[in-house]
Amino acid sequence: MKDIVIRLLVLIGCTLQASAQTLPDLQSNWKELSQLNGMRQAQMGIAIINLTTGQTLWQSNGEKCFIPASAQKLLIAATALSTPGIAPNFLTRLGYTGKRNGDILEGDLVIIGNGDPTLGMDWAGTEGTLEQWAQQVFGLGIRQISGNVIAYAGNWSSDENGKEWLYEDVGNYYGAGPSGLCWKENLYELTLTSSSPGSLCQVLWTSPAIPGLVHHSSVMAKGTQDQAYILGGFEQWDRKVVGTLPAHKGQYVIKGAVPDPALLIAQQLAEILQKKGIKLIGKPMRQYSANPGFVKDIDTVYSPSLKKICRRMLWESQNLYAENLLLHVSKSQNNVLGGLQAIKQWAKTAGIDTFQLRLADASGLSPLNAISPVSLALAARSWYKLDKTEGLREQVPGAYTKSGYINGVRSYAGVKGNYAFAVMVNFFQVSPSEMRKQMEKIILTIPAQ
Q: Residue 19: inside a domain, yes or no?
């Protein structure tokens, strides 16, 4: 017991010494940021918390609420890993209903999803899933399917998800909504022309081809920046493309959110089956149901572990993964409010004051989210306890961070040495590159010990 007390006193002494040496520099850099041109109307907040004790080393506006952008993903990651009953892997099943009669399947070929957001991704080892399934069906001796190819997406409609997002976001790849059956992160590529300044950028094609999806372009070739947006949400097949694209690029690719991922899986599998010589009497279709009745399984595909999904979500700032996990933690499919409530319940266990937490989604894409720097730093501390720094990038030397950025908003949260921290700035009019430089300068002066 005496040794423990001595070690604790040494730790406290080292912490006080480190803070005494570095806090003046930190406070000076913080003041310097506040005095930049373009910061007069900005809101700034910072909190630095000891990983061991949970005590606040220093804060400024630490209990005020700020828009966090993608740094908010730390909350859903920690909630998911702390929620009992979430499978370590999510599975997707291929099977059939009805019966076999020689080489004829007198029933439906069915795909049953369970909310795996990584299906079809190379990093998850499932990129060739549809080809594998088609080969397995062929290998069973089936040469004709009298029914349909049906994708069962459970009750995972995206109607409730994303309703607090900006309309210009929901049709684009980063605004892809969750689905019980996701495929290649629910995105597609749209290729347009780009010629002389002032000319209309014409739509050429999508990859993959999506039956029934139509785009109307008013995009103009102008300037050097990609400012084009696809307008259209879940199950909206008639879409507008607006904004500008860099001139003189020939062909230019932007990315959109697939309007119905589960249906696309069924369509692509049906196409591959037919190329293998398997005749389909019915058609590909999607059902919002989790139970197609008795199914004879052909194959089961497992996702990477929950921890790996969370890491990838943070590394790539993957909104789709965050929103799918939100529905998993809700314990009730398509219950967004239940998922948000689950995050708040977890937050209490992390010592977060839920009065300093307003949530509209899990990914941080909505500008209606708000969280205090103290709460975000506590979330980073909790993440560290669950996965150390494995889920975070060393974006600043010595500091493992999750960043967030939307127009006029930048935030960093993470761990440096023995401290968890959050640095948040809203409504700035400084250039994004200058803001990043100044915020990283502040993070560099956070003490490591």
A: no
